Amino acid sequence: MTTSVHKNFIAGEWVEGATVGFNTNPSDTTDVVGAYARADATQTAQAIDAAWDAKAVWARCTAEQRSDALDRIGTELLARRDELGQLLSREEGKTLAEGIGEAARAGRIFRFFAGEVLRASGERLPSIRPGVDVEVTREPEGVVGIITPWNFPLAIPAWKIAPALAFGNTVVFKPADLVPGSAWALAEIIARAGALPAGVFNLVMGPGSKVGHAIASSRKVRAISFTGSVETGRGIGVTCLQRGAKVQLEMGGKNPLVILNDADLDTAVSVAIQGSFYSTGQRCTGSSRLIVEESIHDAFVEAMTARMATLRVDHALKEGTDIGPVASQEQLEQDCRYIETAIAEGAKRVAGGQLLTRDTAGYYLSPALFTQTQNDMRINREEVFGPVASVIRVKDYEEAVSVANDTDFGLSSGICTTSLKYAADFKRRSSAGMVMVNVATAGVDYHAPFGGRKGSSYGPREQGSYAREFYTSVKTAYTLS
Ligand code: UN1
Prior knowledge:
2 domains, binds 2-aminohexanedioic acid, 21 strands, 15 helices, six-stranded mixed β-sheet, alpha/beta, Aldehyde Dehydrogenase, Chain A, domain 1
């Protein structure tokens, strides 16, 4: 195969990496998507230096210049959503509809932050001292490190890079090693359509052990926004805390979906299918614990398995596919290990969890549903990150709430009910950062705050107007005039 290597972008130049990596299509492992530069620690340091040197220039650009740059990036992403969505689905394995939807979402995020630039505001307070004015303003943090996961190769980078640039920071972006293709395409658009001063935005593809580590430990990187696994996130958190850098972590979830007796069964099944299995269950917002009230339990399980039987698991780019393959061999092995663990712990597999053969060699797994599970089983404590859901039977609403909240995580939660009383009560008592009523736990709006509690998240919220908390530093000025 002759293919040109997609390079890293540092200080306004496309540069070769220390090594080259290839990404393959999880729907067809004979299909090599492309060749991508992989940086080492030295090259990452060059990117950080470039971002450091560009700080003053970018912070001094007018709000209109920044807004226009973000608007051009967003407009191009939207115009090219079909092609970018196709690349995303080919390299990550989510269905084409999901891939195109994500590309469009990335575009809209940039356009939202193009507007946010112009909405930046400060405050003026009366002082307790005569003749003194107190002003509160926000300034960029400086160099921001952005480390993103493989499951949303365009949307998550967009929702970190767009606010970082909007609020005047410079960026060193390290995408997941598994999906450099979408990240590279996004970086190319940012580099060209954004027409940013050199060094404002830098792309360094490569392994976490080298690139991620170099970003986390550089004293020039003032703030790091990370989405990924709990283990890596905690490591980055500790490193940042030790050197006094700001950090925002989005990690796992073990999100509960409560289904009450009075739920509309069709709605409940749709919400559960969407939350548990779409995007092949590879979302930290996915519903993996279906907490079902006793008297609707059997009807729900029956309706779920009937609906699951209609889901088509196949090549992500094939028409009619509902669920694409698992993203990688490693992830597939993890899913299979958890399926075996659940069975060994006494859970009953009522559907799926089988490796599938399709026309092309890919990581195909049928969505799995377990019943007769207890909340203290590993399958209900640890994040699988695959198309695997378990049903926990409860006797009433009170038990449902207590089981829902009994988890080390707290990203999102959901309830299916037709009762205003239970919906209102659940919104109040859920210990998650995001609560959904009759809508899936996954699939959030791009202009609303995103984030969780407990072991799921650390630091300020992402997205919407809340994003400014992380990407700016507050300054309080006192003036006697
Ligand atoms: C969504 O559910 O729309 O990695 C987004 C994740 C989350 C994003 C979920 N940070 O799955």
